[in-house]
Design a protein that fits this description.
Elements lengths: L1 H13 L15 E6 L2 E4 L2 E7 L6 E9 L6 E10 L6 E2 L10 E8 L2 E8 L6 E8 L5 E15 L10 E15 L6
Parallel strand pairs: 3-11
Antiparallel strand pairs: 1-2, 1-11, 3-4, 4-5, 5-7, 6-9, 7-8, 8-10, 9-10, 10-11
Amino acid sequence: MFLTIVFLLLFISSCGLLDGKTKEEKIDEYFRAELNGAMVEFDTKYAIIGAPRGTDWLGVLAFKLDSTRYPYVLNISFSHNYVETRTEYNIVRDSADFSGASFTELDGDAIIARYNPIEDENNRLEILSDTLDSGKVVLVGSFAMKVVVYGGNNQYRQYPDTVVVTNGTFRIVLQQFDDLNK
């Protein structure tokens, strides 16, 4: 009987049930926004940090695949020089460092329409980071922007010339750029 209990305890401990460690934590990730008043949940989302030009560069990207118009894809993305203590970022694109936001309609890999943010008092992008017990960093953000079409104006466009993006929120695990292809 004693040996049975010892073997049972060894088996349970080898499974990691007694060492206080938890299995890989489930992280609730999301990216959503209202586009001209209609809420859209984005299917695929990434938050990536890397140093492609010698400085930390942060990219937040989200894609919404529309199965009724396959391969139609809607994309919202933000890219900025990342500063860990910074929480507010510019929405309007800066051609000097390629930072800012974008809104794009795609047909597979072909661009249907590109939209750029315009100056608007409601434009905002706020990003906070939270380090979990596992060491993973989660970015939590909110955003709003007004965008206007500037290229790819064709009959397949699903959105008008101006799109007002409001109540945007996201929660995404931050990934290192160098780890993406591993």
